[in-house]
Amino acid sequence: MGDFQILLHRPGNEVIMGEEFNYIQGYLNEFKKEMLIENKITDPRKIERIDFIGAQPVSMRNSHADRIREERDQADISYIVCEKTDGVRYIMVITNNGYCYLTGRNTSTDSENKYKLNQINVQLNKQLFIDENDDEEENLQILEIFDGELVLDKKGDNYYLKYLVFDCLVHFGEKVSNIDYLNRLTNALYFVQYNNSLYEINGEELPKPQPFCEFKAKALSQFLETGETDNFEDSENDLVISICVKDFFKIKYCNYLFDNYIPSLPHHNDGLIFTKNNSIYKPGTDENIIKWKPPSMNTIDFLLVANQDNILCGIDEKKSDGNYLLQSRVIDLYVMDNNLERKNYEITFFDFMIVDPDFFEEVIQKTSEKEGAKGVVAECKWIDLDQDKGEIIKKIYTSDTDKILVLPEFPDDSNQDDNRKWIASQKQTYKENKFSKGWGFDRYRLDKNFSNNKKIAKDIVSSIKENLDSKALMQRLMPNQHQNSNMGNPNLEPSIQKKQKR
Asked: Compositional bias (Polar residues) spans (predicted)?
């Protein structure tokens, strides 16, 4: 890592946010490059195009499940598994002056200042940072960097904000992203438990996050999506977030997760995450991190663009009751194309989504609210279509492939052969489903500026086609084993060796 040196201001004094902001920006940018080079990604164009420092999982396919089973047969802890929390992804940066920041995937286009930093309060003891007997000022350092997600836990009628850690990149100022996964988790767990023990040693009570009623919890959800606290009635100084490390398990306990663990969670869950133990941290897409979601919950993050060129002209016909068929509108679905021969990322057409007129106008409105935006990012599911929407998809996809390619609002002429093959594949998919299935809106992704890239989107489509539900997943992971799910708590808690605070 580069040696960044700026003056550290003690808590209680005014922090020069400009200097601290620039320091963290520089650190994260250099750290991302260093980790990518360690993963043998040296092309400057590839490094520049990975804008978020966090690792991104791939979607579970049958071949992934087979690979996990084969490697498990060779080593007891080749992969470990945790529940996939339906929260909002954030990198947590803790500095040695006691300040804590969250930065998410909603990055800036400014290459020097990509990360939007939101200062928050977490349950940290001041003795982690300050030696009260030392009057000398220290240089600012990054103490910890965690990867995790913010969730709202529900207990009774109240909601509590929690940050769940699932990886550790920097520990007490030292880079640990290049060690195996269980040891990274051990470091995270040690930091959290050491912090809590300081409160106990001093006879102090651990700060408790304040409860939110359902009404305030809904307002808080905007913070989870955007990282902005402008709409909070509570000041950010009053917002205390608890921090803990997620529970992890050996692969053989997947049934326990399905039958016992996940049903008892205080927050939403949408699947499982499998992570290879013997792998270093990798920003961008990481084939060693595999997410499984129930087929009904598989989604793609598309850029939604309202097609205002009246592409359905000529197929709007009257039904037997005298009303026109098209009480719906067409949304173009775009993904990112990371062709390295191009100077910048570009969007490329992927598919259509048929929507109601009100939603169509909503997309236009949301697009207009973002300066220079072509559309708005949203999660979409592969769902059952009603008859009218199915008829519209049928009329579009029974057209000649070349005619379909000119229908999108922003046709992509850069790779016509690839686009033609993809449209032909989609035509076959719709035909096999008798035009009864198609894309449907799930939720906006206010925490993201970019859609999924084309490869990830195609992989998710393949995963949806394979229809790998929980039963099929277990049959592939453990074909010859019957597991009793009522076996107590098999949580794989890393063993914490005695450490000295550095």
From this structure: 478-494
pTM above 0.90, yes or no: no
Distance CA 47, CA 35 (A): 10
What is the spatial distance between Cα 129 and Cα 236, in angstroms, rounded to a whole number?
A: 21
Q: Write out the H or E segment, with its range, that includes residue 60.
A: none
* Residue found under tokens 């927050």: 267
What is the distance between the alpha carbons of residues 103 and 88, in angstroms, rounded to a whole number? 11
Helix (H) or strand (E) holding 363: helix 357-368
Would you say 354 and 329 are in contact if contact means Cβ atoms under 8 Å apart? Answer: yes
Q: Which of 90-99, 182-191, 210-219 has the highest mean pLDDT?
A: 182-191
First-to-final CA distance of the chain: 18
Q: Residue 324 in 3-state DSSP?
A: strand
- Whether pLDDT at 210 is above 90: no
Can you tell me the distance from the alpha carbon of 279 to that of 489, in angstroms, rounded to the nearest whole number? 26
3-state secondary structure of 398: coil
pLDDT of residue 493: 59
